[in-house]
């Protein structure tokens, strides 16, 4: 019997790619699925439940994976932990405070949670390269592009990056924000120490770019997502395989792949 996976958001863009990924993996088994509109129907050989609690009481899942909605994810994760199930979080929209609560619950339950603003390999490389750059170049700002209908801001990718860059090297505006002449919002938002400008327009899936600048030169590190959800499957399933051996919260796929950066370990 393989590792038993329950997928929240199983009918969605990412969730349906994951259902296929789990079914194609010899060491994984689809144990449950959650989605409201398809509740009662069958997906990948399992009956879709209307809620995480219903899905996890009907099955003995080892891991719950959430790709639902920013308005639902926190309650879903806390429910799974309360029910003794390790969690992988793909859904965006949770604040640093929300992650604090999840971290405390995971510690209390002795369970693992892996969350990553982006589970694609190339996005995870963008994050790691940006963190390395911030150790050397203190002046940077983050541009966060997504489709016009994305409800949460900044994206999960940009939020996690901003918080982590901000811990290594807070981004300090050349003119302090309270001294700005004109609308302060035009200078973006301070997200955990990193300055983020979010753009929401049709035709984008998601792109995140950090501009590092020194006198006379600039470095731009950019990731651009395409229209397929395939890139998120490998990283999410790697996290599912690893999370069962963890206790507590790990944020960032790059930490699973490459270990903790010394600069982040020092500031933790
Ligand atoms: N970390 C990463 O690498 C990635 C993160 N994401 C993030 O994942 C999230 C989902 O994205 P995407 O796949 O495009 O979303 P979709 O809108 O395509 O799918 C959402 C899924 O969740 C279900 N759902 C929505 N609301 C609820 C709820 N309240 N309770 C239970 N199920 C719910 C939907 O079904 P129904 O409405 O019938 O319930 C559907 O199955 C977003 O936050 C996105 O930013 C996306 C891709 C990669
Ligand atoms: O909403 C999306 O589509 C995506 N969201 C993720 C995020 O919020 O960072 C990332 C993914 O590339 C697509």
Automatic annotation (TrEMBL):
Which pathway does this chain act in? Amino-acid biosynthesis; L-lysine biosynthesis via DAP pathway; (S)-tetrahydrodipicolinate from L-aspartate: step 4/4
Query: Which ranges carry the Dihydrodipicolinate reductase C-terminal domain?
Result: 125-257
Dihydrodipicolinate reductase N-terminal domain: residues covered:
4-119
Is Nucleotidyltransferase there in the keyword field? no
Keyword Amino-acid biosynthesis applies: yes
Keywords of the record, alphabetical order, are: Amino-acid biosynthesis, Diaminopimelate biosynthesis, Lysine biosynthesis, NAD, NADP, Oxidoreductase
Q: Gene3D superfamilies attached here?
A: Dihydrodipicolinate Reductase, domain 2, NAD(P)-binding Rossmann-like Domain
* Molecular function terms from GO: 4-hydroxy-tetrahydrodipicolinate reductase
Describe the reaction catalysed, as an equation: (S)-2,3,4,5-tetrahydrodipicolinate + NADP(+) + H2O = (2S,4S)-4-hydroxy-2,3,4,5-tetrahydrodipicolinate + NADPH + H(+); (S)-2,3,4,5-tetrahydrodipicolinate + NAD(+) + H2O = (2S,4S)-4-hydroxy-2,3,4,5-tetrahydrodipicolinate + NADH + H(+)
Q: Give, as one word, the top-level EC class.
A: oxidoreductase
| Catalytic activity, EC | 1.17.1.8
Concerning its family, UniProt says: Belongs to the DapB family.
Known NCBIfam families for this protein? dapB (TIGR00036)
Record protein name field: 4-hydroxy-tetrahydrodipicolinate reductase
Q: Which gene encodes it?
A: dapB
């Amino acid at each position: 019997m393989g590792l038993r996976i329950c997928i929240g958001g199983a009918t969605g863009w990412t969730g349906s790619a994951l259902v296929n990924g789990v079914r194609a993996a010899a060491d994984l088994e689809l144990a449950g699925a959650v989605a409201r509109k398809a509740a009662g129907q069958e997906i990948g050989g399992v009956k879709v439940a209307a809620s995480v609690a219903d899905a996890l009481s009907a099955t003995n899942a080892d891991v719950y994976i959430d790709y639902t909605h920013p308005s639902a994810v926190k309650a879903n994760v806390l429910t799974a932990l309360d029910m003794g199930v390790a969690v992988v979080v793909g859904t965006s929209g949770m604040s640093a405070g929300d992650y604090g609560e999840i971290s405390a619950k995971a510690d209390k339950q002795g369970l693992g949670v892996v969350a990553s603003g982006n589970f694609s390999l190339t996005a995870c490389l963008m994050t790691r390269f940006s963190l390395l750059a911030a150790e050397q170049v203190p002046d940077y700002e983050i541009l966060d592009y997504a489709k016009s209908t994305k409800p949460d801001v900044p994206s999960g990718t940009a939020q996690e990056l901003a918080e982590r860059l901000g811990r290594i090297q807070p981004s300090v505006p050349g003119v302090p924000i309270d001294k700005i002449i004109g609308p302060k919002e035009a200078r973006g938002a301070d997200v955990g120490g990193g300055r983020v400008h979010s753009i929401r327009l049709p035709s984008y899936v998601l792109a995140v770019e950090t501009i590092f600048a020194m006198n006379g030169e600039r470095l731009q590190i950019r990731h651009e997502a395409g229209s397929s959800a395939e890139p998120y499957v490998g990283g999410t399933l790697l996290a599912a395989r690893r999370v069962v051996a963890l206790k507590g919260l790990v944020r960032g796929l790059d930490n699973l792949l490459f270990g903790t950066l010394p600069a982040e370990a020092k500031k933790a």
